Amino acid sequence: MGEKEKIYEKPLYQLWLKQEFNDTLRTIDDREIEVLFPGEENSSNSGPDFKNAKIRIGNIIFVGDVEIDIDYSGWKQHGHNINSHYNHVILHVVLNNKHKYPYVYSKGGRKIPCLLLKDFVSADYVNAIRNQELTEPKMKSRLKCAGEAQSVDYFVREKFIAELGMERFKKKMNRFFHRLLELKYLDEKLLSEPKVNYDLPPEYEKKDFHREDFTKKELWEQLFYEFLFEALGYTKNKNSMRKLAELANLDFLRKIGNDDDFVLKIQAVLFRVSGIFETPAATEDESAAKYQKELSKRWTELNGLYDSEYLDETDWQFFKMRPQNFPTIRIAAGSSFIKSIVADNFVSSLINLIGSDISLTEMMKRLRSAFIVKSFGFWKNHFTFYKKAKTEIHYFVGLSRADEIIVNVALPILALYFQIFGLAEHLRKVLKIYNLYTQKSEYSLVDDIANVIGLENLTHRTVFVQGMLDLYRSYCSKNKCLECRIGENIFE
């Protein structure tokens, strides 16, 4: 349990020490309680709240510990049911127990009776405690090991999180490899998404692939394009952005002609296929009216080439988003990347960058520069199709988002490429970059976890940020505490 939670339980500690109740205490299963000694308050951040209590429950006198929680569910939420330090608890004292469950269970399976405090104090006192409880910050990362994780050796924690960071990187590589197989299969069968519904045949997944199977650069460019767009979509629009990249694929976009209007043509395709823009609408903004007409004109010239399906405007989230993150701005940024991929061999340039003799520091600097996109054109001054923005947009993709794309897309795909083609030295460079890369974490979840496990000094290192995310998603959120290297040291 974290210190913040203990603060909100402090009034209950005082109540327990003073034993100022309105009636004779009884367990939820209706056995009389006599507190002969409430116990000694545990001043450490681990173990039960009161030690060495002496309590008569029914006709039996028990000597042991007392645990106090705001809610009955706190027993499992804080991992007391798998923590041997709570094996000597004789009474679980709570303010709330909605379903009036009579027991909790120790790690060894022993029944521990529950006392529901609200039945023995005034309603005003209960309301005062509850009002205070409502001000408690709700941490997404409320970990069962909170308050005890830092008792585990620092180097054990650090090494484990670093290993999880590398494990998360490998998971991304595996995910990208599976999609590469799908793209290879589609290419071999000359299928076009999404009109043909398919599953990758089992025999295809078991097939022994050779490097020669993946030499076609268009496979890598489409792979990169899809997951780049997914990353541009953030959490709320990532699926729609990736679907857009599958529908308006590079094979189609290469057919529209690489001329001075290439980016405008790309935007016409993307906004029409996305369903965000269909026909010009009335607007008092002259530049908006002009841009809409230009898009419509380009689409009229191109729609005869497009024979796949469309997304709908309802597939996109604008609600409760910063205008800078609107799908319109993300798609505008994507149009710039598409031009670089199709016309400027962007993916090949990244591969060549890793193969160059420059220092890793310079390599990381150039990677960042490659993914930062300055604003341009109509979307430099607009967030939507109909109204000019109050302030100018300076970047479609800034440093923070560029870092996210590099870490989650560029480096794993490059690692996969070098692994497939047996370029061991290049692969080592990518892994070194991943281990050395630093960025400002955008995840409040990571900050919460870092505070709990005592690795606040590592939240700028990418491999540790990724490791903490994997810790939460693979262990904490799935209650796999006993499989976690930190948890196994606590809940032994």
Question: Using DSSP, what is the number of strands?
Answer: 9
Main sheet characteristics:
7 strands, mixed
Shape: elongated
Based on secondary structure, the structural category is alpha+beta
Query: How far do the termini sit from each other?
Result: 17 Å
Number of helices: 18
How many domains make up the coordinates? 2
Radius of gyration: 29 Å
What is the strand and helix layout of this fold?
Blueprint: H1 3-18, E1 33-37, E2 40-41, E3 50-57, E4 60-71, H2 74-77, E5 89-96, E6 103-105, E7 111-116, H3 123-134, H4 154-189, H5 202-206, H6 217-232, H7 234-247, H8 250-253, H9 262-274, H10 286-302, H11 327-344, H12 346-355, H13 360-371, E8 373-374, E9 395-397, H14 399-420, H15 424-436, H16 444-453, H17 462-474, H18 485-490
Parallel strand pairs: 4-5, 5-7
Antiparallel strand pairs: 1-3, 2-3, 3-4, 6-7, 8-9
Helix pairs in contact: 4-6, 4-14, 4-17, 6-7, 6-11, 6-14, 9-10, 9-11, 13-14, 14-15, 16-17
Jot down its keywords.
10% strand, 492 residues, alpha+beta, seven-stranded mixed beta sheet, disordered N terminus, two-stranded antiparallel ribbon, 49% helix, 9 strands, single chain
